Amino acid sequence: MLTKIFIRLFDEYLRIIALFLLLNQAKFIFLNHAAFAPSKLRFINQLYQL
Question: Alpha carbon of 26 to those of 12, 34, 38, 40: distances in Å?
Fold first, then answer.
């Protein structure tokens, strides 16, 4: 019983970490494209406000 709960929590934890890493990578990629600077920053802000 407890192991099932623990596994579920751990699964959620890994999913959150994966999402965080994905957002960080996306932010890094967008910041490398200087051509779209204003709209890019607006997009990143929208991502963080979700």
Answer: 21, 14, 16, 11
Give the ranges where the chain is alpha helix by DSSP (H). Answer: 2-32, 37-49
**pTM, whole model, 2 decimals?**
0.47
The boundaries of the domain holding residue 21 are 2-49
Rounded Cα–Cα distance for residues 39 and 19 (Å): 22
49 half-sphere exposure, CB direction, 13 A CA radius: 6
User: What is the percentage of the chain residues whose pLDDT exceeds 70?
Assistant: 80
The number of domains in the chain is 1
Q: Tell me: the pLDDT tens digits for 12-36?
A: 999 999 999 988 888 777 776 655 6
